[in-house]
Specification:
- This protein is α/β, with parallel strands linked by helices.
- Helices cover 40% and strands 15% of the residues.
- The protein has eleven helices and 14 strands.
- Helix 2 packs parallel to helix 8.
- The structure holds pyridoxal-5'-phosphate.
- The site of pyridoxal-5'-phosphate has 15 residues, from helix 3 and helix 4.
Length: 369
């Protein structure tokens, strides 16, 4: 059995460290805020090369808080890729703005400057750049465009802890960025958790206040905010796991390298295109595309290999977005949604397991070219 995700084997490998971190919080009886949260915030800021980090309850909240902190005029248009998790677009609408979907690039699955440029109107104020599957979007050109059009950049780095573009960690390359510590993410808590990062002190201050009831001191509320805090037990767990994250990402890259080599040049199979010389891919997901997706998934499942689909329906086609005026040309992401398949990847996989997955995929295409 080759699992898609194996959180129990990860816990077993870290058990003494995790158990003592949790016990430490229980004994300190500090459950909200306190030293575990502030230490995690500074350690994670350092890890992502950001000046500021604010722990929040989850990345969905984090995106909403990040957008709110930018103080854009109500009803601004914000550009969001059509292939992502709904949190990327929910945050836009819930903070009082209008979602404008665009197709990401068909090879890297990330948005590009030219795709964004085509969707800009006089009401566009920001872009949610998703580093989808753990590969950084090419932010260089996007930064130039944003500067010339006066647009703000929110990085949705929920899948991209530790990912780098031109030697720089993602998250704070744009104005503000958000990470998820949902259990299945590359750096996962044991419950919901997230973080906002930024290099701008004013945005950091505002975001921290929004996440904590708009307050400066205990009962001094400058404005109405909300409650979205990272709790101390999760922070203590994340501090332990952060120390292992780089080796886990290396393992993910080793699995991806096996797939990339063994699955090259199959006619009905598109492998992820990686900007190899410019990025460190975090490989949260290894996503392939084929017109025979369902048959391939069934073939792998028959060999006890689990797979996933990210995402089965493009965001603009979700029932939730039935109310939007959609552009007249259909989204390429709509077609891709029926063809995407995520192969198992993670630090739980051995070289032999990665080879078995690759061999099983190859065997399928040899029979079904
Ligand atoms: C997981 C994820 C989120 C949401 O994270 P939560 O912490 O579960 O709220 C947002 N965007 C993307 C791209 C994600 O993968």
């Amino acid at each position: 059995m080759i699992k898609f995700l194996d959180l129990s084997s990860q816990y077993q490998s870290l058990k003494p460290e995790i158990d003592s971190a949790i016990a430490g919080v229980l004994e300190s009886a500090t459950f909200i805020g306190g030293p575990e949260v502030s230490s995690f915030e500074s350690e994670f800021a350092a890890y992502q090369s950001a000046r500021h980090c604010i722990g929040v309850a989850n990345a969905t909240d984090g995106l909403e808080i990040a957008i709110e902190a930018l103080e854009l005029p109500a009803g601004s248009e914000i550009i969001v890729p059509a292939n992502s998790f709904i949190a990327s677009s929910e945050a836009v609408t819930r903070s009082g703005h209008k979602v404008v979907f665009i197709d990401p690039d068909s090879d890297t699955y990330c948005v590009t400057a030219s795709g964004i440029a085509a969707a800009i109107t006089e009401r566009t104020r920001a872009i949610v750049v998703v580093h989808l599957y753990g590969q950084p979007a090419d932010l260089r050109d996007i930064l130039h465009l944003a500067k010339s059009k006066n647009l703000r950049i929110i990085e949705d780095a929920a899948q991209a802890h530790g990912a780098e573009l031109d030697g720089q960690r993602v998250g704070a390359i744009g104005d503000i960025g958000v990470f998820s510590f949902y259990p299945g993410k590359n750096l996962g808590a044991y419950g919901d958790a997230g973080a906002i990062v930024t290099n701008h002190a004013d945005l950091a201050k505002k975001a921290r206040m929004i996440a904590n009831h708009g307050r400066t001191a205990k009962y001094d509320h400058e404005f109405e905010g909300r409650n979205s805090r990272l709790d101390s037990i999760q922070a203590a767990i994340l501090r332990v796991k952060l120390r292992h994250l780089d080796s886990w990402i290396e393992r993910r890259n080793a699995v991806a390298a096996i797939y990339q080599e063994r699955l090259a040049a199959l006619p009905d199979l598109t492998l992820p295109s990686v900007m190899r010389d410019r990025v460190r891919h975090a490989y949260h997901l290894y996503v392939i595309r084929t017109s025979q997706r369902d048959a391939l998934a069934a073939h792998l499942s028959g060999q006890d290999i689990s797979t996933g689909i990210h995402y089965p329906v493009a965001l603009p086609n979700l029932r939730a977005y039935g109310y939007l005026d959609q552009p007249s040309t259909p989204f390429t992401s709509t077609d891709h949604a029926g063809q995407l398949l995520s192969l198992p990847i993670g630090e739980h996989m051995s070289t032999a397991q990665a080879e078995s997955v690759a061999n099983a995929v190859r065997a399928f295409f040899e029979k079904n070219p």
